[in-house]
Amino acid sequence: MTTLRIAEIFGPTIQGEGALIGEPTLFVRAGGCDYRCVWCDSMHAVDSAYRHTWTAMKPEAVWAELRRLSGDRPVTVSLSGGNPAIQDFGPLIALGRAAGYRFACETQGSVARPWFSDLDTLVLSPKPPSSGERVDWGTFADCVEAGRGARSTVMKIVVFDGADYAWAKEAHARHPELPLYLQPGNPEVDPQTPVDSQALADRLGWLTETAMADRWFAPRILPQLHVLIWGNRRGV
Amino acid sequence: MTTLRIAEIFGPTIQGEGALIGEPTLFVRAGGCDYRCVWCDSMHAVDSAYRHTWTAMKPEAVWAELRRLSGDRPVTVSLSGGNPAIQDFGPLIALGRAAGYRFACETQGSVARPWFSDLDTLVLSPKPPSSGERVDWGTFADCVEAGRGARSTVMKIVVFDGADYAWAKEAHARHPELPLYLQPGNPEVDPQTPVDSQALADRLGWLTETAMADRWFAPRILPQLHVLIWGNRRGV
């Protein structure tokens, strides 16, 4: 059976962002990514220079750790990364769902997987111009299609500036069927640097005021709560 | 036709708390309340000493103001207070829904109204012991029943301390069918006092860690974003 490359497993804590904000969650962060966003806040799970810190685990071993962390009480599991879609999380999802756990997956939409249909929540987060990456919208549509069996599929876009904002409107026009979540970008990703709460609040205020002045009421606009509470520390 | 007592109408801005957190929203704050929570953050809409600041408006006048603020673009309208359930918001809801606007209402669950069934989201927020109020659970159940036609009904509980936390678990046990949202209490409600972001973050951290250590995964746990962004100012 498949072996997974895992950067970290932690929780339970609350989901800090997006559609499931505030939801008690266990996090499985997959190692490895097909993107290199310039502002990536999880480079330790992306850059293969860190691969010696990743653990090769069978799905059964990941599942045993999730059961231990949750005290065997069913809870939501978030698969993130890196890009979890470059690996096969189908067997882990099958193990967890059989015990009543719910699964969410956060991926950029660059690789479609059959197991997207077994998720409770598929979060597709196409990367805006400020990332330095480019979205292949054909593959993105394949991901939406692969997730048709999921309980819900949503789109989340990080917005750093006006160009990203304009791009988010175009992305929503391509997929108006997906509930949309906007999140102000966080340029401070160094775990050693204290977070500037006022700057975080100001960026959320800017994005909110931009959309409201524009009378664009389609997206929900949310910050990263975990950064507000715990700063850029890992494992929380 | 009915006349409404309105403390303030403002927006659009994002909903700062609860099930619709991040959602672009117009706020209609009703004047008058049947409760006097000791930590009330909206006393200007509760205490009748402020009633000279409330405006008597026909539903048509409220609706005209909502259209003006939203530039005639359909958006979510939140009815709050005070306790909006002591007044008749049915005619306003009918006007707005006919134009594609969505309605949410936030009420403690002390008065049941037929128009609860016309809402998109009914938020019932029973008040915990720290409020100094006592919940009549029979009337609360009447409110749940009155809201059966709403698209969703949820429960939101403010938690100031360990006694409130224990009470929230009991409240959830009474109504496990209602999705539950917990919100850390905010003891700093003076609009003139600058907000202590670290204290807000610490209270969210405390509530999160309490529930996680307890392996209580039922509630979503969310802060008041508007306090983080705008402090305790009114009209934002």
Describe the structure.
2 copies of one chain form a homodimer. Chain A is α/β, with parallel strands linked by helices and 236 residues long. Chain A has one domain (4-230): TIM Barrel (Alpha-Beta Barrel). Chain A is built from 6 helices and 9 strands, in the order βββαβαββαβαβαβα. A 9-stranded mixed beta sheet of chain A has the order 3-1-2-4-5-6-7-8-9. The first copy, chain A, is globular, with a radius of gyration of 17 Å. In chain A, 47% of the residues are buried. The mean pLDDT of chain A is 94. Chain A binds chain B through residues 11-14, 21-24, 70-71, 73-76, 181, 197-198, 201, 204-205, 208, 211-212, 215-217, 219-223, 225, 228-230, and chain B through 11-14, 21-24, 70-71, 73-76, 181, 197-198, 201, 204-205, 208, 211-212, 215-217, 219-223, 225, 228-230.
Biggest interface? A-B, 35 and 35 residues
User: Would you list the SSEs of chain A in sequence order as H and E?
Assistant: EEEHEHEEHEHEHEH
The CATH fourth-level homologous superfamily of chain A: Aldolase class I
Radius of gyration of chain A: 17 Å
Mean pLDDT of chain A: 94
Kindly, what is the distance between the CA atoms of the first and last residues of chain A, rounded to a whole number of angstroms? 30 Å
Q: What percent strand of chain A?
A: 15-25%
Q: What is the percent of helical residues of chain A? A: 25-40%
Number of DSSP helical runs of chain A: 6
- Return the CATH class of chain A: Alpha Beta
CATH topology of chain A: TIM Barrel
Based on DSSP secondary structure assignment, what is the total number of beta strands of chain A? Answer: 9
Please give the order of strands in the largest beta sheet of chain A.
3-1-2-4-5-6-7-8-9
What CATH architecture label of chain A applies? Alpha-Beta Barrel
Q: How would you characterize the largest beta sheet of chain A? A: 9 strands, mixed
Which residue ranges of chain A are poorly predicted, with pLDDT under 50 across at least 5 consecutive positions? Answer: none
**Class per helix and strand makeup of chain A:** alpha/beta
* Structural shape of chain A: globular
Counting copies of identical and different chains, the oligomeric state is homodimer
Q: Structurally, how many domains make up the residues of chain A?
A: 1
Binding site for S-adenosyl-L-methionine (chains A, B): 39-41, 82, 125-127
Cofactor (chains A, B): Mg(2+); S-adenosyl-L-methionine; [4Fe-4S] cluster
GO molecular function, one term (chains A, B): S-adenosyl-L-methionine binding
Keywords (chains A, B): 4Fe-4S, Iron, Iron-sulfur, Lyase, Magnesium, Metal-binding, Queuosine biosynthesis, S-adenosyl-L-methionine
